[in-house]
Amino acid sequence: MLDSPYYIDYILIKCSFHKDNFIMPRIKKPRFVSRYPTITAFVPRGMFQTGEITLSLEGLEAIRLSDFEHLDQETAAKMMEVSRQTYGRILSEARGIVSEALVTGKALIIEGGSYEMRGRHRKRRRRGGREF
After folding, report:
1. Which of 4, 8, 50, 98 sits between 20 and 30 A of 90, alpha carbons compared?
2. Which residues pair with 32 in a beta bridge?
């Protein structure tokens, strides 16, 4: 029975779908950031703005820890309370967003993300920057 292609299809379908046949995504674990940014947008000067691109707060925190504070990825990942692989992925995506804004002349807007503030008054935020 285990070798039957129908049984394998049944297992795949049973594992992939839940409630009304929709795939249930894994809930994102919030990343910890130390503070809100004082500047929330960078706009190109002296040239025509070609659009906007958004950088999440956890992306900004990853750039701050690695490029500004010069921390290694392992230490920075512990500060954000994520795995080193997740930190590397956040950092890579953030650097890609910043480089796209610089090269193409797009405004860089810093907002949103899945994060929590580190410290005494921790507030949990989700993608749009709204509290829940």
Report:
1. 50
2. 116
∠ CA 95-118-26, rounded to 5°: 65
Query: 64, 76 in Cβ contact below 8 A?
Result: no
Structure tokens that stand for 30 in this block? 């919030």
**How remote is the C-alpha of 69 from its chain's centroid?**
19
Beta-strand ranges (E) seen in the chain are: 31-33, 41-42, 52-55, 107-110, 115-117
pLDDT tens-place string over residues 82-126: 999 999 999 999 999 999 999 999 999 999 888 888 775 555 455
Global pTM value: 0.69
- Dihedral of the alpha carbons of 49, 53, 58, 63, in degrees to the nearest 10: -50
84: helix, strand or coil: helix
The letter for the amino acid at 19 is K
d(CA 78, CA 44): 34
Q: In Å, how far from its chain's centre is CA 24?
A: 19
* SS3 assignment, position 1: coil
